[in-house]
Amino acid sequence: MAQTEKKGGLLRKSSASKKPLKEKVVLMYDEIFTTEDPSKCNPRFWEELFLMKVNLEYLEGKLEALDGEELMKIKDNINCLFQHCIQALGEEHPIRVVNALQTLCALIRGVHQKNKSTSGFDIINMLVGFDKAELCMKNLMESLDSLLCAEGSESLKSLCLKLLLCLVTVTDNISQNTILEYVMINSIFEAILQILSSPLSRREHGYDAVVLLALLVNYRKYESVNPYIVKLSIVDDEATLNGMGLVIAQALSEYNRQYKDKEEEHQTGFFSALTNMVGSMFIADADEKISVQTNEAILLALYEAVHLNRNFITVLAQSHPEMGLMSSPTSPVPTTPVTPLGTTPPSSDVISSAELPLDADVQTSNLLITFLKYSSIVMQDTKDEHRLHSGKLCLIILTCIAEDQYANAFLHDDNMNFRVNLHRMPMRHRKKAADKNLPCRPLVCAVLDLMVEFIVTHMMKEFPMDLYVRCIQIVHKLLCYQKKCRVRLHYTWRELWSALINLLKFLMSNETVLLAKHNIFTLALMVVNLFNMFITYGDTFLPTPSSYDELYYEIIRMHQNFDNLYSMVLRLSTNAGQWKEPASKVTHALVNIRAIINHFNPKIESYAAVNHISQLSEDQVLEVVRSNYDTLTLKLQDGLDQYERYSEQHKEAAFFKELVRSISINVRKNLAFNTLSQELLLKEFSTIS
């Protein structure tokens, strides 16, 4: 007997038979795509349809193949199919529920593909009809809510979340998706929280739930009152917030682990041997080859949680038992392939061993450490658009953290010391730091290290001005907290001062190129004012008096850079060009730095002449500095410890609109047919009672 093949909804014999046979479900779909009511000839039509295995590809393809007029002719049957799908969700037989959920996915996507150019209201009319839309969508959302909250099948819950993600991402710009009005009115927020608070549900569905919540929060967030924003901002249940933190930490950990694996694989390979042989000329290419796709969806979820909910700040420093010191899982954890923007979740609450502390006997990890490691990877290369967006979002999240009083309290807590192994960009002029030499320090040191690392490694032609501004603002906000609370942080401040001076040097060296694209004086002013902050208030927050002396030493040692900066801004502020005003602000800001240089330089030269020393050592310069503070006169500068608080709506709306659009497209793209596969579901529901 000839073998039977199945293709595109057709059954055919591999021998040369004349007419291919169609699957029964395909024949039933064909009946729906006529103008006749399919239940006229067969009263049990709808009942039978939901016992048939769904052919998603055929149903979507059939919808897409019709033109607008043809679709309107069968509108009544489409409405009828949609309504019967919703009715089937209340059935006891799980097979019918599964088939109804999958049919809804195909309907929503197929009709939307056909109506891309028309408004959302036409899509609603085409799917359910205006007259029944409110009731139908209410019933749909209630059914999905019940399935998500029920004790039943995890596979059904997974499919419900897939349907909701399909519904939310059916348009690129989710704020134009008017179907979401019904998701706002009939909230599933509590169902999402229930998933996040339960270890079992969170393990299976936490990732989809968190991404869904992040997208729903961004629906028309600036135009109307979004109930998901309101509700997320007041969540105070510890189990729920910790659950959300775990899901985010897990996804970021998975990214970090994959990057580390690729890095190790790369270093042990042939390319590494070649690089060692010919020197470091290929370092930039090597770095590009180990890039891993960024996860903007989960990063958006972290941002919304940090930005909207002050209670979530506590989760950042929470040591998770699932992330910390625990035994390995008894069953092997399946690995999931990475998809663009991290739309595939990690498969378990168990964090990989790579994410465990460097010394397991000493410390555990937490969400903030995992996030800082993630940031240190994605911020290495900002040439790629997705990484640039990810890097920007990382800095926005850190901005929100740096402004929060409670976050600052645990960042600066001397009793909460961690060893944070940040990734450092390979550079010709420096050796790779040995991980084992990392000291245990308060978490704010890792944040400052990350900022210094960014400042040092991104002085390039395609200068990321916006990221530099955010970076300097974060440092400033942390200093403001230290000054206000008189926190004396034991940090290698010299590294920061050196990085800032080199940044000023870069801005001056590339004045012509940079001024064609950016107002470099805004950044220069911020850098100069950081030094003014140290000069004016350093005695209240620098760890020791000698640290304050070292600040003066660095300013005097690098005085040529400040002199050159002064010459440049003076030249531009005396001309009647477009840079007159911003340049003059920098001129005024340099007053104390110039006073220090002009006061101490003659004293140092005099000391050298009297003692017949051609070149003074650092200790000798410091001795001159300490003995001449009394005669130094500085001007008191106002507002150095003040800053403008972060505001999303006024300054970042365009960025988030574009980011959410990008995430929506990628989530939709990755809700492929295989993710809605029925085989596992059919095995689970192999018997129908």
Describe the protein's topology.
Elements: E1 4-7, E2 10-13, E3 21-22, H1 24-32, H2 45-49, H3 56-65, H4 68-73, H5 75-88, H6 94-114, H7 120-127, H8 130-149, H9 154-168, H10 180-185, H11 189-197, H12 199-217, H13 227-234, H14 238-268, H15 270-278, H16 283-289, H17 296-308, H18 313-316, H19 367-378, H20 385-403, H21 405-411, E4 417-418, E5 441-442, H22 443-457, H23 465-485, H24 493-509, H25 511-515, H26 520-541, H27 545-557, H28 559-573, H29 580-589, H30 591-610, H31 618-626, H32 648-651, H33 653-670, H34 679-684
Antiparallel strand pairs: 1-2, 2-3, 4-5
InterPro entries: ARM-type_fold, ARMD3-like, ARMH3_C
Subcellular location: Membrane
Organism: Calcarius ornatus
Structure overview:
- The chain has 689 residues and is mainly α.
- Among the domains are: 24-186 and 658-688; 492-648, no CATH class.
- 62% of the residues lie in helices and 2% in strands.
- It contains 34 helices and 5 strands.
- The chain has helices spanning 24-32, 45-49, 56-65, 68-73, 75-88, 94-114, 120-127, 130-149, 154-168, 180-185, 189-197, 199-217, 227-234, 238-268, 270-278, 283-289, 296-308, 313-316, 367-378, 385-403, 405-411, 443-457, 465-485, 493-509, 511-515, 520-541, 545-557, 559-573, 580-589, 591-610, 618-626, 648-651, 653-670, 679-684; strands at 4-7, 10-13, 21-22, 417-418, 441-442.
- The strands form 2 sheets. Strands 1-2-3 form a 3-stranded antiparallel beta sheet. Strands 4-5 form a two-stranded antiparallel ribbon.
- Strand 1 (4-7) and strand 2 form a beta hairpin.
- Helix 5 packs antiparallel against helix 6 (94-114).
- 39% of the residues are buried.
- Residues 1-7, 277-289 and 321-363 have low confidence and may be disordered.
